[in-house]
Predict the 3D structure of the following.
Amino acid sequence: MQNERSNLQVLLARHPDGVATAADFTTRETSLPEPGEGELLIESHYVGLDAALRLIVRDSDEFLFRVRPGDRVHGSIAGRVIQSNHPDWHVGDFVSGSLGVQRYALSDGSGLERCDTTQAPLSAWLGGFGVSGLTAYFALFDVCRPQPGQTVLITGAAGAVGTMAGQFAKMAGARVIGTAGDDDKCRWLVEELGYDVAINYRHAGWFERLREAAPERLDVVFDNTGGDVMNQSLKLIGMHGTVLLCGSTSQYTEEAMQGPSNYIWLGTMRARLQGFVVFDYAARYAEARARMAGWIRDGRLKLPETAVEGDISEFGAVFEQLYRGVNRGKMLLKLPAAV
Ligand SMILES: NC(=O)c1ccc[n+]([C@@H]2O[C@H](COP(=O)([O-])OP(=O)(O)OC[C@H]3O[C@@H](n4cnc5c(N)ncnc54)[C@H](OP(=O)(O)O)[C@@H]3O)[C@@H](O)[C@H]2O)c1
């Protein structure tokens, strides 16, 4: 049982062998940090479960971040300031940031975001109103720029980014096709999020369904997963189409990554394969959020999330569920402190 005046942090116990399990993580109890001059203390309410954390399996500096056994696990939290010696942050402020997976976090304010919960609920600042939604917003509206009547394919459509990208593509007037890993999720994408067609890529014949759904080919492939689904979709890319490399979830745990062998279609169709990183747009986050807040108010934009309630020590077990695709929208761990 944890002492009330102590902190609980989640550490990597060992490098996962492919898919991470709860046993790959452990916890450490430390004393509750005391903020010094210019510092503040935050109590975590939500922890975001990020697909990119699967890269920890790689134990390499080549990717986004490296976590070694014994290190605190990298992750974003959203919570409330409970003590402050910082002039810009006050007790009661809602904040989010990349502060590691822990119940309490000390900060000097750098990299911290102020969460205006009148724009969107606190949890959404880690998902649809946070990096996932901003990724979908800029990748879709700034890079892919689908025109009314064009056809957009979104892979990983039921995930945190895909659920937002699909809604934005509909707002742009496109016809939107999504791929997801189970029939219920596919139904939900159509009935709740407005996707025109959703295809379960685990069924044999999925590619034929995609071909039928896109008789005039695909103007945009917004790719979150890489692997076979992305590779097959290249056969249907349209003239001057865009294949946006948002993420490669299927490859993060693969020792030998699989490249797209159907790239020849990109040449024939004068199409482009476009990389993308949301952090390049940091100066425009407020502008995007102002528009998104308006759509939320008007009921035009949903912020899907799957929040599992539990203590911080359950992080590993919840992370494991992400590999099974149980999430609809952003996967979150909702801590007891959340209101
Ligand atoms: N470029 C950027 O700036 C940026 C920013 C944020 C995120 N990303 C990337 O964008 C991608 C999507 O992120 P997200 O937060 O939406 O992810 P997410 O919510 O974790 O969704 C991932 C979904 O991918 C599917 N999936 C799981 N394992 C898979 C596999 N082996 N092969 C194919 N699909 C699999 C699952 O759905 P199904 O069961 O339905 O397949 C799962 O629900 C990730 O690769 C992430 O790293 C990029």
